[in-house]
Amino acid sequence: MVKVKICGLRRPQDIEYVNRLKVDYAGFVFARSRRRISFEEAEKLIAALDKDIKKVGVFVNERRDVIMKACEELGLDVIQLHGDEPPESVRGYGRVSVWKAIRVEDADSLKAAEDYEVDGILLDSSVKGLYGGTGLRFDLDLLEGVRFRQPVILAGGLGADNVGEAILKVKPHAVDVSTGVEIDGYKDFEKMKKFVERVRSL
């Protein structure tokens, strides 16, 4: 079954929603973004998170010592590196899984995945000057015939209306959504519920 990650959680009710829906991954953004939270805020949210839900910390071009601190203090299960991190910088995080985001512009941009020794490749849309969270889709036809060594996490403009088609086309390990389950910039339970139900109906 394709796993579900809901990203950009920042309120107690967001945690209540993901707990009720029993999603697989909960994403916390520690990079510059309107969804950014502090380690202190994340600690309070994680304390209320269902223990079966894996905790993902999202970082963009962050220092290793800061990431390690987050792993220690928050007990992260996954580090999602969403910036311009070079291949040599993504190793050595111990028990914590590492996902590297690739911003998909064209077929050539997908080749970057070959250089990374990570536990997952997250495919997201590319918008100049932005690192994820755009709410925009990329052309899934670019993935036709492409094989990745790592499990694929599919992101970029997903919602309940299009995630089924995307899963059938890409067959990812997991799908990642943030904007697609929000109303006016905040997580909406009904949108989240429809998204999760759609994924799990396949």
Features:
single chain, 202 residues, two-stranded antiparallel ribbon, 5 helices, 22% strand
Sheet with most strands: 8 strands, parallel, barrel
Distance between the termini: 8 Å
User: What strand order characterises the main sheet?
Assistant: 1-2-3-4-5-6-7-8
Q: Count all strands and give the number.
A: 10
Question: Helix segment count?
Answer: 5
Supply the helix-strand structural class: alpha/beta
Radius of gyration: 16 Å
Low-confidence region ranges: none
Succession of helices and strands: EHEHEHEEEEHEEEH
Strand content is 15-25%
Shape, principal axes of CA atoms? globular
Query: What do the pLDDT scores average to?
Result: 93
Helix content: 10-25%
What does this structure look like?
- The strands form two sheets. The protein has an eight-stranded parallel beta barrel with strand order 1-2-3-4-5-6-7-8. It has a two-stranded antiparallel sheet with strand order 9-10.
- Strand 9 (about 180-185) and strand 10 (about 185) form a beta hairpin.
- The chain has about 200 residues and is α/β, with parallel strands linked by helices.
- The chain is built from five helices and ten strands.
